[in-house]
Amino acid sequence: MAKDKPKKEEKSEKKKGGHVxxxxxxxxLAEKYKAEIVGAMMKRFNYKNVMQVPKLxxxxxxxxxxxxxxxxxLLDTAVAELEQITGQKAAITKAKKAISNFKLRQGLPIxxxxxxxxxxxxxxxxxxxxxxxxxxxxxxxxxxxSFDGRGNYTLGIKEQIIFPEIDADKVAKITGMDVTFVxxxxxxxxxxxxxxxxxxxxxxxxQPVVKAS
Length: 213
Hints:
- By secondary structure, the protein is of the alpha+beta class.
- It has a domain at 55-198: 2-Layer Sandwich (50s Ribosomal Protein L5, Chain: A), CATH 3.30.1440.10.
- It has 4 helices and 7 strands.
- It has helices at 28-45, 72-86, 118-132, 188-197; strands spanning 12-14, 20-22, 56-64, 91-94, 109-116, 152-157, 177-183.
- Strands 4-5-3-7-6 form a 5-stranded antiparallel β-sheet.
- A hairpin with a 5-residue loop joins strand 1 (12-14) and strand 2.
- Helix 1 (28-45) packs across helix 4.
- The protein is elongated, with a radius of gyration of 20 Å.
- The chain starts with 11 loop residues before the first strand and ends in a 16-residue tail after the last helix.
- Residues 5-12 have low confidence and may be disordered.
């Protein structure tokens, strides 16, 4: 009589910021894209095949720390918080040119950036729309005016403490960040619908601001 094979133990992997991901578990929004969003987009825009359906390519999260020129510790803190929020190592951004009025020299570290793709991208987006945004005071939705005309969208976040990875009681300085969503959409209207399908809570208007190119 054959012996029953022992069940494989489910493994979990802990990343930066305390994020725990279960091995073999596909991100919820990645599954939603395949199961629901592709079909909804094809119906909405009458695409002839699935290859025409826009995709979310990457998410870039940028933090600017202008005061880092006077206090380098502020940049260190911002980098640590950005890595906690995104679960990925941040790259330091430097001044592209000197500005004498602000005592800013070319090449001086002034911020940090993280670029998310694949699993990390979907997991960050899920936490953003499901956990972080509901923490914004008097939240009524995000603006639909920040598309660039090429299907990309930038969202400004005023306080890092809306993210569950950040302990507000331990934050010494409130900092904001810009989150840019890069899509393969040909128009801003298609990009907005794609992000809306992912759960982006755009402000409801009688007439949409973005126009089809």
